[in-house]
Write a structure and sequence with these properties.
Structural class of chain A: alpha/beta
Keywords (chain B): Membrane, Transmembrane, Transmembrane helix
Structural class of chain B: mainly alpha
Protein name (chain C): ABC transporter permease
Order of helices and strands of chain A: EHEEHEHEHHHEHEHEEHEHEEHEH
Helix content of chain B: over 70%
Mean pLDDT of chain B: 91
Number of domains of chain A: 2
Number of strands of chain A: 13
Number of helices of chain A: 12
Low-confidence stretches of chain A: none
Strand order of the largest sheet of chain A: 5-6-7-3-8-9
Shape of chain A: globular
Oligomer: heterotrimer
Radius of gyration of chain B: 20 Å
CATH class of the largest domain in chain A: Alpha Beta
Organism (chain B): Thermosporothrix sp. COM3
Strand content of chain A: 25-35%
Pfam family, one (chain C): ABC2_membrane_6
Strand content of chain B: under 5%
CATH architecture of the largest domain in chain A: 3-Layer(aba) Sandwich
CATH superfamily of the largest domain in chain A: P-loop containing nucleotide triphosphate hydrolases
Radius of gyration of chain A: 26 Å
Largest sheet of chain A: 6 strands, mixed
CATH topology of the largest domain in chain A: Rossmann fold
Chains: A alpha/beta (347), B mainly alpha (272), C mainly alpha (264)
Keywords (chain C): Membrane, Transmembrane, Transmembrane helix
Shape of chain B: globular
Order of helices and strands of chain B: HHHHHHHHHHHHH
Chain lengths: 347, 272, 264
């Protein structure tokens, strides 16, 4: 099986002219520009097989959008090679465009003043989709994305969730092999998000459309992506599964216990009045207290969760107990801050 | 190759249909726009006419003659403005980030830019041009018109329209580097239109040369008018040069399309 | 309260200073169009040396003064107030403890000062250099011109305030703005010096307030107005400005009530 995306040692350097202040400075900048080099992407290598669904995460300015622009032919690379669907994007941009779909979460490609169906009709003509194929695709998309209710509504009157579904439909009308989604669930409520995630899951499993998802929402990644790529400062920091990263870096779980009021008052306190839990087991820490709630952080391998609950229950009367998995967000933050991935990059 | 042209034309037609339908969503607004625009352009023309009450002629050009020149300029600029509005407003496309979306489609970027805007009220200037032409016909002797003069008229209008469109395109290309200079570009396009309403000979030598050899609007509007009126062409050109306006238009259009390609490549090299 | 309004005007002036490049671009544009009209005027005068006592030089000066005054009294598309209505900002503005009208007045005064210094003066100087205009007036005329000029600014501010605040009641006001500005510019003398208009039209123009925007001040500076005409013009233009300000305040009160009742 051939890969749909093959990127090797991709790099992009931007030459920015530094702005000098003042009127004379402005004139000098035209005549003798002082250039600043920005390495947006450095030595990025990535291989995506057909039918994969991968999540691309990284802080703002990490080089994610720059990479995607190079993959779609909008931006020319400074170095390295890219092949998408067997084509070099910058050379065969228009040909490639017919095989891919792109959805921007924050910028719609739909025409504002007209009903959704009009935008879709125009896109049919742009992508040269034959009439019958269009009708079939539209019917399928209507059903999967539940569009019938607002097909005839002007786009400016649609809710964000409806508009998003419209944009996704617009991107899929021509049955692309590869779909890029840039922040597709941003600003949506829980129900709308779940809906879109469900749809993307179906699209990936049934149609085998390769999906590349850029997002800040960790729930998206955990729900959808088997594979996750972390990019920061133009480098690829991590390329593997979500479980792997959790197992490697996210070994700490959190136990949140709600104590009985009387039990809370019986607990010993230190000089500052903070609650103390003496002789906690190894690798268990009291992280926080808030009224009757206490947060205990414990290492996954230290003791099984039920044992810790039992230990705690023996010392204080518990009203309620919940567990919290470490959020990918905080795992990633730890990785950045503690430079944990320096030796762990999986190709 | 020809099939591509037909396909693109059909696609352009779809764009136009969408734009028109979009405007018809706000019918009252559309009427108001058309009315106000007609008034604006009409008032400019009325001012021109009013000058001829105290003054019998402009240099040695009579009213009818000036109106002929005017009508040519109005009509050709009007045509360019109607179809080239997307190009004229290109700075907006860049600033809103819509250009990336154009690059993501399998279609010609130029076509998408053209199709991005099309407002009906701009036909007002074309209509005005035609009306002014009718007025000029009334004021000029009927014996003036021969077949070759009608031909040079048509060639002139189409060539000047093309040159104005190419000018818009050059203005758009500059937007790839900076969006701060739109006002200066407007000066060349709208200024050029304003200038071409009056005989070229009233301007100083520098301006005459600029609008003949660098931005050849004079070739399409002034030269044909001189030919029709039996006046000598400027710079000592022989009369048949008036028929060369299409060549000027093609060369100028070709140059501007080259610049357009360079602009796109620059955009793809440096990002937005 | 006066120091507050003074600072509003000053802040507005300072804000305009930041748009240096835009101003230069505008200067070049104004100079270009001024030159263009000048060529036309010169060509027209080939057949006839003077009209009603106005020579070529007079009319050229008129043209350049009109270009110079343009941005000061009647910037073409002024939507500032209308935009705050559209975005809803105006609701919080109306509940501020200052007078809404005078606030906008002060703001626009600051801008007008900027445009006087950085457009008006440079443009006339450019015209003088390019077309050898010279300066037309003696000190007495200059003094009266300054008065007429200040009146022009007041009229201009009141007018644009009015055609903006109407946006409270008309939803899509863009076309109306074009109409308002075009008519005003025509009767101010921007399209054609008013003394070229046929008698009845000239008469009409002289009773409209737009006359005070450009035509009247310019004619004063050119020394073409007799004391009697001057008196009559000042009186009528003062009446117009008072009238317009009264309408401004009336409409603002109505708008405020509407905001309170409807909640914006």
């Amino acid at each position: 099986m051939s890969a749909i995306i093959e990127i090797e040692h991709l790099s992009k350097v931007f030459r920015l002219a530094k702005r000098r202040p003042g009127f004379l400075g402005g004139l000098r900048s035209i005549v003798n520009p002082e250039l600043q080099l920005v390495h947006a992407v450095q030595g990025l290598s990535l291989r995506v097989e057909r039918g994969e669904m991968i999540g691309l995460i990284g802080p703002n300015g990490a080089g994610k959008s720059t990479s995607i622009k190079m993959m779609t032919g909008i931006l020319q690379p400074s170095g390295g090679s890219i092949r998408v669907a067997g084509l070099v994007p910058i050379e065969r941009r228009r040909e490639l465009a017919a095989k891919i779909g792109v959805v921007f979460g924050q910028r719609s490609q739909l025409w504002w003043d007209l009903p959704l169906i009009d935008s879709l009709q125009l896109l049919r003509h742009l992508y040269r989709v034959p009439e019958t194929r269009f009708r079939t695709n539209l019917a399928q998309l209507c059903e999967l994305l539940d569009l019938k209710a607002f097909l005839d509504t002007p786009v400016r009157q649609l809710s964000l969730g409806q508009r998003m579904r419209g944009d996704i439909a617009a991107a899929l009308l021509h049955e692309p092999e590869l779909l890029y989604l840039d922040e597709p669930t941003i600003g949506l409520d829980v129900v709308a998000k779940a809906r879109i995630r469900e749809f993307l899951q179906q699209l990936n499993t049934e149609r085998r459309t390769t999906i590349l998802l850029t997002t800040h929402d960790m729930d998206d990644i955990e729900a959808l992506c088997q594979r996750m790529v972390i990019i920061d400062h133009g480098h690829k920091l991590y390329d593997g599964t979500v479980t792997e990263i959790r197992d490697t870096f996210g070994k700490d779980r959190m136990l949140i216990a709600v104590l009985e009021q009387s039990a809370l008052q019986q607990l010993p306190r230190d000089e500052a009045g903070e609650v103390l839990l003496p002789d906690l087991p190894a690798q268990v820490q009291l992280v926080r207290t808030d009224g009757p709630q206490i947060w205990l952080q414990f290492h996954r391998d230290a003791m099984p969760a039920h044992e810790l609950v039992a230990w705690l229950g023996q010392r204080v009367t518990l009203r309620d107990v919940t567990f919290q998995e470490p959020e990918i967000e905080s795992i990633i933050r730890r990785i950045y801050e503690e430079d944990l991935l320096l030796h762990q990059v999986t190709a | 190759m020809l099939q591509n042209v037909f396909d693109d034309l059909r696609l352009y037609g779809h764009f136009l249909e969408l734009q028109v339908r979009s405007q018809f969503q706000y019918k009252l607004n559309l009427l108001a726009d058309i009315g106000a625009y007609l008034l604006m352009t009409g008032l400019e023309f009325v001012a021109l006419l009013l000058y001829f009450i105290p003054f019998p002629s402009l240099l040695d050009w009579k009213v009818g003659e000036v109106l002929l020149l005017c009508s040519l300029t109005y009509t050709s600029f009007g045509l360019a403005d109607v179809f080239g509005e997307g190009i004229d407003h290109f700075s907006l496309i860049i600033r809103q980030g819509s250009f990336d979306r154009f690059l993501l489609r399998p279609n010609s970027v130029f076509l998408q830019v053209l199709g991005s805007e099309f407002t009906l009220r701009k036909f007002g200037r074309v209509t005005q041009g035609i009306l002014v032409f009718c007025l000029a016909l009334v004021l000029l002797p009927r014996s003036l018109w021969t077949l070759d003069k009608v031909l040079v008229l048509f060639l002139g209008v189409l060539s000047t329209a093309t040159i104005f469109l190419a000018l818009f395109l050059i203005g758009a290309v500059i937007c790839f580097w900076t969006v701060e200079t739109t006002e200066l570009i407007n000066m060349v396009t709208h200024g050029g239109r304003e200038m071409m309403q009056y005989p070229l000979t009233i301007y100083n030598d520098l301006l005459q040369r600029f609008f003949t050899f660098i931005v050849p609007i004079a070739f399409g509007a002034y030269f044909p008018t001189c030919y029709i009126l039996g006046r000598p062409l400027p710079f000592g050109f022989p009369a048949f040069v008036a028929f060369l306006s299409p060549i000027c238009a093609v060369v100028f259009a070709f140059l501007s399309s080259l610049l357009w390609r360079i602009g796109i490549r620059h955009y793809q090299g440096t990002g937005s | 309260m006066f120091p507050f309004y003074f600072h509003v005007a000053l802040a507005s002036f300072r804000r305009q200073l930041a748009y240096r490049w835009a101003n230069i671009a505008g200067l070049i544009t104004n100079t270009f169009f001024g030159s263009l009209f000048s060529f036309v005027i010169i060509a027209l005068h080939h057949a006839r040396q003077s009209v009603d006592g106005y020579t070529v030089t007079d009319t050229l000066r008129y043209t350049w003064l009109a270009q110079a005054l343009l941005m000061v009294v009647m910037p073409f598309a002024w939507y500032d107030l209308m935009n705050t209505i559209r975005t809803g900002e105006v609701v919080s503005d109306l509940s501020k403890p200052c007078d809404f009208c005078w606030y906008w007045f002060s703001r626009e005064l600051g801008r007008s000062l900027y445009y006087t210094l950085f457009r008006g003066v440079p443009i006339y100087i450019a015209g003088t250099l390019l077309f050898n205009l010279g300066f037309p007036a003696g000190s007495l005329q200059l003094l009266i011109f300054v008065l007429a000029f200040l009146l022009a600014i007041v009229l201009g501010i009141a007018y644009r305030y009015l055609y903006n605040i109407i946006a409270f009641w008309i939803v899509e006001a863009r076309a109306m703005v074009w109409l308002a500005v075009t008519v005003a510019l025509f009767f101010a003398g921007s399209y054609i010096p008013l003394y070229f208009l046929p008698g009845w039209l000239y008469g009409l123009a002289q009773v409209l307030p737009f006359n005070g925007l450009m035509n009247f001040p310019i004619q004063v500076l050119l020394g073409k107005v007799s004391p009697a005409q001057m008196g009559w013009a000042f009186v009528s233009l003062l009446c117009w400005s008072v009238g317009m300000i009264l309408v401004m305040r009336f409409l603002t009160a109505r708008a405020t009530r509407r905001v309170i009742v409807q909640g914006g």
